[in-house]
Amino acid sequence: MANFAKPSVPRFSVDVYQNEYLPEGGREVNAIVTVTATGGGTLGGGLSPAASDGRPSAAVAIMVDCSGSMDYPPTKMRNARDATAAAVDTLRDGTHFAVIAGTHVATEVYPGDGGLAVASPTTRHRAKQALRRLASGGGTAIGTWLRLADRLLSSADVALRHGILLTDGRNEHESPEDLRAALDACAGRFTCDARGVGTDWEVKEVTGIASALLGTADIVADPAGLAADFTRMMETAMGKEVADVALRVWTPVGTTLRYVKQVAPAVEDLTGRRTEAGPRAGDYPTGSWGDASRDYHLCVEVPPAGLGREMLAARVSLVVPQPDGSAQNLGAQGLVRAVWTDDMTASTAISPQVAHYTGQAELAQVIKQGLDLRKVGDFDGATAKLGRAVQLASASGNADTAKLLSKVVDVVDAATGTVRLKTRVAQADEMTLETRSTKTVRVKK
């Protein structure tokens, strides 16, 4: 039975960056909210079970694509087995875990008794022996994998639930509606990192899974890189300290919260994920946290006011919703203000943080638009969009994205966004750019 840790939480802080000054009649307030967690520790007070080492108890389900396409090339399945073994080796003692083989059905590989194993030298060894039985054959129905993972993960009384999903192909043996229903059923119950191996999978499917389940998505073009990637993913999962943190945003009467977006380390629109949290307040899910810092963009429409007036446009705090409908406040708060002035210099200045992340959000958007246009043969439109992407990446110092763009276009002048589409582009390069298009760089404070 899990022990309970003494009450202790990672220390959360909230910093707000904005230009609060509006001209007479001005209504739109933009702010970047930086949330930082430091110091580790566990969410205690009897709320979250903890392992014997004092860290939060966790459960992990590893879902491995075993469809027929995993046989081509033959090394792919071997690399997947090796990667899963590496992930199992990275589990800390006391972590509950399971391995699932995914085809057009989902099959428990280990422990195979309808529940979860508890990580120890013995169970890790047995799990790696069971991995030798993984063989390819059958189709792909990812929704069934996720539903089995959810059933297994929910069987343990743990603080953190996480999935790792690997696929090499398209979700061809269930409808998009079935996958969406599975994601809706699993959202908020566990987080999940998704990886596509090779180049025969669908980027929008893999990134959609990660987005819905508040995890990361990436491409592993060369199957030989799977073990290192799985190890990194599991190390990150083992470093999580608190699950289900929500960004609670309160706004006064007369205001409208236009949107809430995560803008670093990746762009993720949270607006549609709001759950009501009392009068004028809503919670936006942010997933699990270890030591980390993330940035969010809030846009609030306020009622116009006279010169010299000021108001609180929004109050941001961090909470952990509880099963009984209450919420534990994590003790950090930030205020978004609006002040009306006739000082044109003050009211027309743009916050550097807001400007930076507005550009990063546009960068992600134009990359996706450019690649979509390229796929349908609109090369002029693709050139214009990807040229704008090069310009934005250069201006913001997003060197990683600029490098990926250079695999798809020849850059004539980065400052003006003048580019030429490459006539030959490796599929892996195009898929890497699309998969990583939402990754951002932090603003230079």
- Gross morphology is globular
- Give average pLDDT, whole number: 93
Question: Uncertain runs with pLDDT below 50, 5 residues or more?
Answer: 1-8, 41-48
* Fraction of residues in H or I helices: 25-40%
Radius of gyration: 23 Å
Give structural notes.
The protein has 445 residues and is α+β, with helices and mostly antiparallel strands. Helices cover 31% and strands 32% of the residues. A hairpin with a 5-residue loop joins strand 19 (310-321) and strand 20. Helix 3 (142-153) packs parallel to helix 4. The chain is globular and about 75 Å long. It starts with a strand and ends in a 10-residue tail after the last helix. 47% of the residues are buried.
Helices and strands, with pairings:
Elements: E1 3-4, E2 11-18, E3 21-22, E4 28-38, E5 49-50, E6 58-65, H1 75-90, E7 96-102, E8 106-110, E9 117-118, H2 121-131, H3 142-153, E10 160-167, H4 176-186, E11 191-197, H5 203-212, E12 217-220, H6 226-238, E13 242-250, E14 256-264, E15 268-269, E16 275-276, E17 281-289, E18 292-301, E19 310-321, E20 327-340, H7 344-348, H8 352-375, H9 379-396, H10 399-405, E21 409-413, E22 418-421, H11 427-435
Parallel strand pairs: 3-20, 6-7, 6-10, 10-11, 11-12
Antiparallel strand pairs: 1-5, 2-4, 4-18, 7-8, 7-9, 13-17, 13-19, 14-15, 14-18, 16-17, 19-20, 21-22
Helix pairs in contact: 1-2, 1-6, 3-4, 8-9, 9-10
